Amino acid sequence: MAEPLDDIDRRILGELTADGRLSMRTLAERLHISRANAYARVERLRTTGVIRGFRADVDPVAAGLGTSAYVTVNLRQTEWRVVREKLRALPGVVHVALVGGEFDAILLVRTTDNAELGRLVLNVIQDMPGVVNTRTLLVFEEADAPPFTGGTTE
Length: 154
Hints:
The protein is of the alpha+beta class. It has 2 domains: 7-47, Winged helix-like DNA-binding domain superfamily/Winged helix DNA-binding domain (Arc Repressor Mutant, subunit A, Orthogonal Bundle); 67-138, Lrp/AsnC effector binding domain/regulation of amino acid metabolism (RAM) domain (Alpha-Beta Plaits). The chain contains 5 helices and 4 strands. The protein has helices at 7-18, 24-31, 35-47, 80-88, 114-125, and strands at residues 67-75, 93-98, 105-111, 131-138. A 4-stranded antiparallel beta sheet has the order 2-3-1-4. Strand 2 and strand 3 (105-111) form a beta hairpin. Helix 2 (24-31) crosses helix 3 (35-47). It is elongated and about 55 Å long.
């Protein structure tokens, strides 16, 4: 098991979550640590899988994906592994989570418009072997999550 994160690790994650292009020099200056310490900590966070990668934060609407929806899916229990992989491979499916509760999976889907969303849900997802039913929750507005704070609620 990886060693627990300390306050500096959490602050590094917060700074990099806010700006993944931050230079090590600026990061070190903001946290009042040496550049060598910043490099070593970021590398440890990366190699232990705490930092999974660095990505561009793309505005889906500006990128032409004006329709977003959460799609809940009920599955035949014996086929969840196969269906999960098929769902993950679909264009427009941004996130797949297997969950407990009244449905088995929830997907975040982004498409150009409602017609494309309808085709994806009605013609592709509902036709997959192992999918019992779906429900589509259209997203009207999104709010960004606050920056990473280390998971504490204090």
